[in-house]
């Protein structure tokens, strides 16, 4: 028996794809697609554990803390991507959701050999952020044993931060290091050991859940509308107009006028229209409601 079959899930050989180099192009794609279907079910089995991370993040960020991802390789890149997409989507400050990758910024674009093996460096990079009681640090490691990530979560825990992990093996080393572990086992990869495939997809799905559900909990949505969008380009400005129209039932012209008076802030424009008030009054209303549109308008519009 090949020794790889005795290794962890992320390093094991997949019997379905053993003849991968002998398949037609369509057959290769079919095998990949069939295996990819396993990922959502594997994620579903971990929803309670993922929910625990989200609830910790909502509580921490509400108190002024941060959501910090720390990963290496594909896992690290996915964390940086998720963090980078929060400011334009939810108007978060760039320091609210942070992505750290072993090897630094260069590692986003090319492999930095040996970076993921440096446990002390992982601790140093987390400590440079001065983690505290309200921070939630999520270690991302497909294998669940990456030294740089282990060092990062250990340092975060020692500093008093809440710690979590997302990996793709059962009984992973990192799970013993954190408060809130998530283990997603979608089976071995189609290409043995290439964790940018199913493991990467699983981690991307989980990161989507963590950041989006956290922002919902922070009042950055109204229904399923991303009302805290930052209208930083023409596409997003038009999206802000559409969001105001969808949230209020007003015309596009009314939405454009309200957004202009609200300095492009969709939440303010929505409250202005729904409660028939000025931008200043809407801002004050949002301040007292903690920035949540629903809390701002429900008192007067209980069926919104």
TrEMBL record:
SUPFAM superfamilies: SIS domain
Biological processes annotated in GO: amino sugar catabolic process; N-acetylmuramic acid catabolic process; peptidoglycan turnover
Domain SIS intervals: 57-220
Pfam families: GKRP_SIS_N
Keyword terms of this UniProt record: Carbohydrate metabolism, Lyase
Active site: 85 (proton donor), 116
Pathway stated in the Swiss-Prot or TrEMBL entry: Amino-sugar metabolism; N-acetylmuramate degradation; Amino-sugar metabolism; 1,6-anhydro-N-acetylmuramate degradation; Cell wall biogenesis
Reactions the enzyme catalyzes: N-acetyl-D-muramate 6-phosphate + H2O = N-acetyl-D-glucosamine 6-phosphate + (R)-lactate
PROSITE patterns: GCKR, SIS
Enzymatic class: lyase
Known EC number: 4.2.1.126
Further information: A lyase-type mechanism (elimination/hydration) is suggested for the cleavage of the lactyl ether bond of MurNAc 6-phosphate, with the formation of an alpha,beta-unsaturated aldehyde intermediate with (E)-stereochemistry, followed by the syn addition of water to give product.
Job of this protein: Specifically catalyzes the cleavage of the D-lactyl ether substituent of MurNAc 6-phosphate, producing GlcNAc 6-phosphate and D-lactate.
NCBIfam families registered for this protein in UniProt: N-acetylmuramic acid 6-phosphate etherase, PRK05441.1, PRK12570.1
Record family assignment: Belongs to the GCKR-like family. MurNAc-6-P etherase subfamily.
Protein name: N-acetylmuramic acid 6-phosphate etherase
Species name: Cutibacterium avidum
Lineage, highest ranks first: Bacteria, Bacillati, Actinomycetota, Actinomycetes, Propionibacteriales
């Amino acid at each position: 028996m090949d020794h790889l079959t005795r290794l962890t899930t992320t390093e094991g050989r997949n019997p379905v794809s053993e003849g991968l180099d002998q398949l037609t192009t369509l057959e290769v794609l079919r095998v990949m697609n069939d295996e990819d279907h396993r990922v959502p079910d594997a994620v579903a089995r971990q929803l309670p554990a993922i929910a625990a991370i989200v609830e910790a993040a909502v509580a921490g960020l509400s108190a002024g803390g941060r959501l910090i991802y720390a990963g290496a390789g594909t896992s690290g890149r996915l964390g940086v991507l998720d963090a980078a997409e929060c400011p334009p989507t939810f108007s978060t400050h760039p320091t609210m959701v942070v992505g750290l990758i072993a090897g630094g910024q260069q590692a986003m674009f090319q492999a930095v050999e040996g970076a993921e093996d440096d446990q002390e460096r992982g601790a140093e990079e987390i400590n440079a952020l001065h983690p505290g009681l309200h921070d939630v640090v999520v270690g991302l490691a497909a294998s669940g044993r990456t030294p740089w990530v282990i060092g990062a979560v250990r340092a975060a825990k020692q500093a008093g931060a809440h710690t979590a992990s997302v990996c793709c093996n059962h009984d992973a080393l990192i799970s013993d290091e954190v408060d809130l572990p998530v283990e997603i086992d979608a089976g071995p990869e189609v290409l043995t050991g290439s964790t940018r495939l199913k493991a990467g997809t699983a981690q991307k799905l989980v990161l989507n859940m963590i950041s989006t559900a956290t922002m919902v909990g922070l009042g950055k949505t109204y229904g399923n509308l991303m009302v805290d969008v930052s209208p930083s380009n023409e596409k997003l400005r038009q999206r802000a107009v559409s969001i105001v129209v969808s949230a209020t039932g007003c015309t596009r012209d009314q939405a454009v006028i309200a957004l202009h008076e609200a300095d492009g802030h969709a939440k303010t424009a929505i409250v202005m229209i729904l409660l028939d008030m000025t931008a200043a009054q809407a801002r004050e209303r949002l301040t007292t409601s903690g920035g949540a549109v629903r809390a701002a308008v429900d008192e007067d519009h209980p069926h919104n």
